[in-house]
Each structure stands twice: as structure tokens, then as C-alpha cells.
Amino acid sequence: MSTIAVEVIYRGIFQKTLAKHITRGIVLAARKEGKVGVAFGRYGDSPERNGIPAKQFAIVAEDDDELQISMAQYEPTQVDVTIAVDDTLCKGVESWAWYGLQPVNKLLKENGTLVVTSIHNPEDLIPHIHRKEVPYNIALVKGKTSFAGLWVYKDDHTDVRILGVLPRVAPQLFSSSSIEQMIRDEWNDDLKVASAERSFEKVQIRKVKPDEGNSETPYSFTMPGWKDMEEGLVVRAVPNGGQYEGHDGGYRPGRSPYFKKFATRTMRPVIDFTTCTKCTLCWLQCPDSCFDVTPDGYYEANMEACCGCGVCEAVCPVDKCVTMVNESEFADNASQWEMWRADKESYAGWLKGKIESRPEERSHGFHHRGQYESEKVEQTD
Q: What percent of the chain has pLDDT over 90?
């Protein structure tokens, strides 16, 4: 057996506990079979923030020498399994500025497996995933996205359900019996064991060919080498804003050219311009200055700058003028105002379809004590 590497991609802060449970569980299950392993979080030059994609890794080896050789790296350059605990991460991972957008399958080895939690089918997700030059597998763990809130961890079995599929997609890691024993030792919970077993049986696995997926080239940036660094500390200011692109009038704020922010989004706002009163509240209250002022005085959320926090929906005084919709419903970051301006009747149908077809309710950044408990009651009802 060679060293086996697994990465878990999750939403910063929201899902940190979930990612920790998964990577720790991998190592503990491997130890049941006499293997060694280590779990660790990715080093970053920015702290974890709400919704920002982040990573944790688990590395398993036959002996300590082999493990130490792997650990000498900054982080794994190739992994056998990538786990995305939110299906909107299939669009790409932008964890911090300089790297640009990293395809969710970038580190996967040939014939490796991308494990995704989603209520969708593989055919719905593959168009969002950037193409890879070699074939790989996608394994779907059916279920709603598990967000761990700021104050409470959602113990909805997402961790054990993901661990349960690993003997199926990567049998070189450990057996199902090792996972079951680990769960009993850690949680002493027969229901969690049953969840892992059922996940093993129900997981959907599909081969993805090199010609399948999003053909766009993800944006990236060239990082300066140490010989190119400037002397002293240089903090570049965000450039001043300017005219609304492609039209006379309007205003577009200046934004960082290196951090687009849309990879942080699990939901996005859709705007009914026909009911907008131009009150300016969304423009004023947006924490990321993502609203552009259109030439006719409306406010459009720029989908490259929007992080999906939902503040605009919360402050809008007009009912259903701004509605947060699941990000998995959208294939691009096209301008909503341009679409509305070109054909108002078609836009009204598009807007109605997006709002009514929401596949699952999601939280978009507002958390309070007791929220999860009330959600559980609603789900039970």
C-alpha cells in the first residue's frame, strides 16, 4: 500500500467541526488495522471566515517512515479522495486571493473519487465541475447540506455517512468493520453505525470522463517569486470605482482584482427590478460593496463580488424584491439587470422559476442560539 491522502473541502467556520470529525475519523479507523495516519488543517495566509472555502487533510500510511515522507510536504499535491461537504463547492474553490479559483477536482489522482453531499444527481453536478484531463469518479451521498452554525454543531450524521462510503470508494484505506468499530468507540451510538452502513449501500458512484464538465478555464494569478518581492511592506489600495460597464451613467465600486468572492456563496440574491423602489438600502448595507448602480438608478448585485450573505434580502423593505436562491440553480455569473433590460417578460418568467424551484432551504449566514433546534422540530413535523 502506498500513502493514501484525503482532502475535505468545507465552508470556513460553518463546517469546521464537521471536517474535523471526518479527518479524525479516517485516521482512527485506519489505526484499527495497524496503519498510521495524521489529520491536519491547511495552512493559509488568511483566517477562516464564514463561508470561505477551507481544507483539512487526512494522510494514512503503512508505517511511520512512509508517513513522515508524505508529511514533509507543505500539503498533498495529489489526493486519492476529495470530499466536498457542500455541493456548491463543485463550482470551484477560492480559499484566498492569490491562487484564484481552484477546480474542486484539481488534486484528484487519475481514477480517484470526488465524494459530494447533495440532494442532486451526478448529472446535475457534473456540468458545474471543471473538466479534468484524466477520468475520475463522483460518489454522491444523498442528503441536505450540513451547516454547523456559529454556536451549535449540527449532529445530523453527515460525518459518519461520509465515513461510511470510504471503504466503498477507497477500500485501500480501511474496511467497513473498522469504521463501525471506530464509531462505536468514539460515539457509542448504534444509530450512527446504521447511518454509516446505509450510506455504504446507497452511495451513487459514476465515472466522469475527461470530456465531461465545465470547459471554462478557471481564473488564476501568478504569484511573485521571492526575488520579485518589493522592499518593505506594500499594501495596495483598492482602485477607485468607475462607470457601469458598457453603458453611460451608473457606478461600479472598485474591487479587489484578486479575490472574486463568488466561491464563498451557497445562495445568491435574485432581484425583481419591477418592484424595486431604489431606496438604496441594499447598496448601503452590503458588507462587501457588491452592488453596482445601473445607469437607470437600480441596484444590481455583481455576481463575481457577491458572497451570498443575505443582508440585502434582510434589509429590503419590499416583499420578495430580493430573494436568496440556492447557488446550485445557476450556471454562470451573468448580469440580472442586463437580462431584465433586454426582455422584461422573459426575465419575469426566469425569476419566478428560480424562486419556485429552490431544491432545499439553506442558511445564508444568520445564526442564533436555538436555530438548529427549531429547524429539527420543523423537519420532524
A: 62
Contact 174, 29 (CB under 8 A): yes
Instruction: Output the CA torsion 343→247→355→262 (10° steps).
Output: 150
The Cα–Cα gap between 223 and 370 comes to 44
Residue 299: its H or E element: strand 299-301
Partnered with residue 4 across adjacent β-strands are 60
Please say whether the beta carbons of 44 and 7 come within 8 A.
no
289: left (phi over 0), alpha (psi -120 to 50) or beta: left
Ranges of residues in the chain with a pLDDT under 70 are: 1, 43-48, 73-74, 96-98, 148-152, 358-359, 363-381
What count of other Cβ atoms lies within 10 Å of the Cβ of residue 78?
12
User: 291-293 and 299-301: which strand pairing?
Assistant: antiparallel
Return the C-alpha cell found at 191.
444509530
| Distant-in-sequence, close-in-space partners of 169: CB < 8 Å, separation ≥ 6 | 81, 113, 115, 137, 139, 203, 205
What would the pLDDT profile of 117-127 be if each residue is shown by its tens digit?
Answer: 999 999 999 99
Q: What is the pLDDT of residue 120?
A: 92
Residue 268 parent element (H or E): strand 267-271
* Best CA proximity match to 207, nearest among 105, 88, 118, 59: 105
Q: How far apart are CA 236 and CA 231, in angstroms?
A: 14
Task: Determine the Cα angle at 249 with ends 246 and 255, to 5°.
Answer: 65
Amino acid at 263: A
Domains and CATH numbers, the chain: 4-208 (3.40.920.10), 228-257+267-361 (3.30.70.20)
Question: Strand 136-142 to strand 4-11: parallel, antiparallel, or no bridges (unpaired)?
Answer: unpaired
